[in-house]
Structure formats: structure tokens, C-alpha cells
């Protein structure tokens, strides 16, 4: 019985290999524009600090992915904002530790409380500026923007 089972399994065709669909890593898109449109494209890309292909790619990605498209200067500015917020966060943690220690000792730390309020205002300003920057970016890359 075992021999017959093995013989029939040996005669059975091998299952077909499953091939994953091949997806290109990138593709090329060619556009033909009238001279006037090409001049406008060059001017707009230049204002954004991008080559015309980079500008067109950013426009397409904005529409496809519905998220901001940052130029290099914008990305560097965002990194700087993040660095500043991290610095403020470290200071807030140090103040919180000092306040916790002071509460245990029964001491009121007016200077630390004032500094904490100043950091709160600074964080609020940075967050508001980030919101405005992202909204402006989204509006710029929106259709008809």
C-alpha cells in the first residue's frame, strides 16, 4: 500500500511555481507640452527651487498620496524645528524633575514655573508655525494651486 502511494506520488506532476507579479521599481513618464506651457513649468519649478521633472513628480505624488511634498530647504527647516522641539522637551523634563523634588521638600520654584510657562508658549508657537507651513504646502501642491 505504501509502495503504491509513493509510486502514484512520484508520477504526479509537480505543482506549478507561483510567480509573484513583477512591479517596476520606477518608470518613465514622458510629457509633450507646448512651448508656452513649458516656459510656465520652468518658471514655477524654479520658484520652488526644483528642476521641472522634480516639480512635476512632486505634483503627481501630492495628488496620489495626499501628503505634503517638501523641497530640500523645507525638509531642512523641518529638521531644525524638530531639533528645537527636542531641546525644549529636554528642558521641560529637567524642570519637571526639579518641580517634583521641590514639591517633596515643600519648596515653591517660581523661576521654574515661569520657565515652564515660557516653554509652553514657545512650543505652541512652533506647533502653530508647523501647521501653517504644512497647510501652505498642501495648498500649493493642490490641484489649481
Helix-strand category: mainly alpha
Order of helices and strands: HHHHH
The percentage of residues in β strands lies in under 5%
Mean pLDDT: 82
Q: How helix-rich are the residues, as a percent range? A: over 70%
Number of DSSP-assigned strands: 0
Gyration radius from CA atoms, angstroms? 30 Å
Largest sheet: none
Distance between the termini: 76 Å
Number of helices: 5
Low-confidence stretches: none
- Dominant shape: flat
Keywords:
single chain, mainly alpha
Would you kindly provide a written description of the structure presented here, covering whatever features stand out?
It is built from five helices and no strands. With 145 residues, it is mostly helical. Helix 2 (35-48) crosses helix 3 (52-65) and helix 4 (72-105) runs antiparallel to helix 5. It starts with a helix and ends with a helix.
List the helices and strands and how they pair.
Blueprint (H helix, E strand, L loop, with lengths): L1 H10 L23 H14 L3 H14 L6 H34 L4 H32 L4
Helix pairs in contact: 2-3, 4-5
